[in-house]
Each structure stands twice: as structure tokens, then as C-alpha cells.
Amino acid sequence: MSKPLTLEIRSRLRPHLRWLAGFSLAVNILLLVSPLYMLQVYDRVLSSGSYDTLIWLSVLAVFLLAIYGAAEIGRRRVMALAGAEIETRLGSRIFTQFENQPSGRAALAQNLARLSRIQSYLQNGAALPFADLPFAPLFLLVLFLIHPVIGMIGLAGAVIVFSVAVAAELTSRQTSAVSQSMLGQANHLAGDLERQRSALVAMGLIPGAFRRWQEQRDQGQALGLNAARLDGRFTGISRSTRQVLQIVVLGGGAALALSQQISPGSIVASSIILARLLGPIDQIVGGWRNTVLTWTAWKELRASIDGQPDEAVFTPLPRPQAELDIERLSVAVPGHEAPLIQPFSFRAEGGQIIVLAGAIGAGKSSLLQTLSGAWPPADGSVSLGKRAMQDWVSADRGRYVGYVPQDVELLPATIAENINRLTGADPEETITAAKLAGAHDMILTLAEGYDTLIGPGGAQLSAGQAQLVGLARALFGSPPLVLLDEPTANLDSATAAHLIKAIGRVAEAGAVVVVSTHDRRVIEQAHTVLLLRKGSVLAAPAEQYLKLAVGPGGGAPGSQGVA
């Protein structure tokens, strides 16, 4: 069981926080160099006329400010390393959550965006004012040591500027959150539109889609502008207050100097120290919106991945026997309690081809995803070679499962890397899988062959070409369980015929092949048909099904209910 996320991050960042505290202490103490230098120049050098004193004071000040610069570099480096540490620790958890939660697909991009915001916030130094804030009492104490009146002016200024920060938080938090939510919905819509471009263009839906996107975007932008207006107002008030306080402390210091209560050098020193006192508060107010959005991103990320383990460490298991055992399995869409498929049992051995048949929406694809281990069973179990799929680590189990979904999407990598599942395997194994899938000749027609890059900046494959590469990926490594969802849907008759022969060869090699299809040519090669109808699963020999089936959604009279 993994630690709670907050505790783990706190533990991991503790060394960084120690270094940050040390560097921040040095930085803030050395910020007193400038006002002390001015104090000495006004009160000693100008009164004594000593060039030697001026030179040595200047050399000492430059030396100390060089140390200040090194300390500032050091703490910014610490913040950058803290951001990298957070990315290292949380990146694996985000992908583990993506792997373990079937309904979490959309959350992957969201969580990575949240992580990127948190990392940028730290690496850009936006959090440094919070590290400086604990030292504000030090500067306030120095102001009181100069004169109690100067100290009271500084205290009043700090209270005013801090009150502005609190008002900014209470006023803009909700508006910023709603704005980000609306803009996120618009971005998701744009992503969905991109995947459906051809259908949208063909049916003239682009103008309507643009209006829908614009409505969501305008609502989010309006709220965002309102939040920015509020932030701008509070930032303006804060900075204006700072300037007024500078005038007040200069004027008050001049009055105190005229009455011989402080020296002339204390006037300039007080002004510089007041700026140091109010600086962190003013920076926090100015960056408050960014801080709120980053804190919101952290809370959402924590809620999403808290409790998720790091990348699994496991002992690879030997290749399982090609035996598929389904025990009282019921299937439900993740996030829904009502079962799509009622409990059934079935057993298949290596060399068998099992066809899933049924009407659209009967649950064929859902059943395939459950058999693959991508979805957890609603009840019951699925085992491959006596090993329960849901309890088997995905990274190990996946080597022995080949799966081709209805809509094949390939990774932005080379064709060879897609086929060998990013394992860097021997090219001969990659080519063997491509030949078995009937993809080899098609790949050779591409300019760079197996080294052709797919995706942004690379080749755009047709649906049929992607289907062949996806099939080659499924067959890579000769897995004992092969699951195919409408594999001939995007293929021409010649390629489909080659694929059907490939299915036969895979079964002959000893694998269990489960195919969702209505293609009669595939059914003719099958041993058994599992008919999904109204939540029930009925089994029949393929020959009997072909003789008695009355349509793609029809039943097979005489088929037997599965025990």
C-alpha cells in the first residue's frame, strides 16, 4: 500500500526544503547589505570625507552581494530540482492510475497538464515569495530599531497589503475555478472534433461545432476576464499602496531627521528596508491567480491519483498455457453497476477460434476488453493458463495477450516500434509478426519502410493500413491469447482474405483466438460461436450457427445456453 500522496511528497521534498530555507535565510539577511551600505555612506563617509572608508565599504558590499547572488542562484536551482522530483514521483502514479482505471482515459491528459502546471510553478520561481514571507518580521524589526514611527508605518503597510491578498483570494477563487473548468470543456470538445474531422466536413457540421466550441470558450473567457479584472484591481491597489507607503516613510523619516531623532542615512535605509518588507507580499498578490490555479491543480491531481502505487515491481512469470477459463463472468461498463452481460462460464483451449456474435450494443467489445484484462469483471473471473487476468500485473500479462480494438490508434513512433510494442526487439521478430498479419508488403511500399514515423511530423496511415499494423502488434511475440474486434472491417477483400488465413495460422500455432465479427468467412473457420443476446451468452458450434442463424442480430435456434 502506498503512502498518502501529501505525506510522500512532503517526505521527498524535505531535503529540498532544508536547502531552500538555508538559501532563503542567506538571501534575506544579505538584502540588508544595500540599506546598511547607504546608511554608512550617508552617516560616515559624507560626514568624514574619507575615500578609504568609501572604498572598503564598497568592496565589502560588493563581496556580500556576490554571495547574495550565489544564494539566489542556489535556491532557484533547488526549486527546479523540487519540480523535477515531483514529476519523477508523480509521473509513474499518473500512468498507473491510467492503467488501473478503465474510465480514466481522459484523466491522463488532464493529470499530466496539472503536473506540468505544478512543475512550472516551482521551476519558474513563482513560489519563492512564500519562502521570503517568513523573513518579513526581520525587516519589520529593523524598521522598529531605526525608529518606532518608521516601524509602525511598515506594520500598517504590511497589514494593508496582506489584507489585499486575502481579499483577492476570497473574491477570485471561485471565478477562476469555474473559468478553468469551462475552458477545459472547450479544449476537450476541440480534441473530439479533431478525431471526427472527416465526418464533420462531409456532413457540414463544422459551423455548428464551431458555434458550440465558441459558446463554451466565450463563457470560460468571460469568467477568466472577470477573474483577471479582479486580480488586476487588487494588484493595482497593492502596488499603489506600496508607492504611497514609500512616500510616507520618506516624508516621515525626513520629519524625524529634522527633529534630530534619526540620521539622514536612516531615511534612505528605511525606504529600502520597507521595500524588502512589502516585496514578498506584493509579489504574492500579483501572482495570486497563478498560485490559486496551481493549488487547484494540486488538489485535483491529489484527488485523482492518491492511493495509486508507483510503477509495479514484479517477477516475470513464465509463458502461460493457451487455456482460457471464464468462471461465472458478468460484464459491466466501468462506472456503471448494471451488468451488460449476465454471468456465464466457458472454456477454450489452444487452437480454437471463438467468434462473438450479436446485435450492435450487445456487449461484444465490452466482453473482449474484459477478457483482455483492460476492464475488471463486474463479477466472476477470467484466467489464462490458470492465472487470473485481473490479478496479473499488466506489464507482465500484456506480453501474452494480443488485442486489436475496432478503432486502431497507433503510437507516435516508428512502425517497427509500434509492432514490437516499444520493446526494441530483434527486427526479425518484428518482421515475422508483420508478415503473419499481412502487413509486410504494405510497409515496404512506404518511403522509410519499418522506420516510417507515424503521427505528428510523420506518415498518416489509412484506416486499413493502421488495422494491419495493429494486427501485427497483436501477433508480436506469438501470444497464447489473441482478441480481435471486427478485424476485417476496414480491409479490402484481398487483404481481408489474407487476414482470415492469418487467424487460422495463429490458431494452428496453438493460440486461443476470440473474434468479434459478422464476417461469414471468419465464422466458417471458427469452432464455436458465442451469441450475445439481451444480456445472455449462448454457445453453439460454428457450423450449426451458420445453418440456423437468421441475421446478424438473430439467434441460433437450437444453440445451447452456456453453463
Question: CATH superfamily of the largest domain, called what?
Answer: P-loop containing nucleotide triphosphate hydrolases
Q: Which overall shape is indicated by the principal axes computed on the Cα atoms?
A: elongated
Q: Radius of gyration from the CA trace?
A: 34 Å
- Decide which structural class fits the backbone: alpha/beta
Distance between the termini: 38 Å
Helix coverage percent of residues? 55-70%
> What is the C-level CATH assignment of the largest domain?
Alpha Beta
Number of helices: 20
Total number of β-strand segments? 11
- As residue ranges, the low-confidence spans are 550-563
The mean pLDDT is 84
**Can you list the strand order of the major beta sheet?**
6-7-8-3-9-10-11
CATH topology of the largest domain: Rossmann fold
* CATH architecture name of the largest domain: 3-Layer(aba) Sandwich
In short:
62% of the residues lie in helices and 11% in strands.
Give an account of the 3D structure.
The longest helix has 53 residues. The protein folds into three domains: 144 residues; 152 residues, ABC transporter type 1, transmembrane domain (ABC transporter transmembrane region fold, Up-down Bundle), CATH 1.20.1560.10; 239 residues, Rossmann fold (3-Layer(aba) Sandwich), CATH 3.40.50.300. With 563 residues, the chain is α/β, with parallel strands linked by helices. The C terminus is likely disordered.
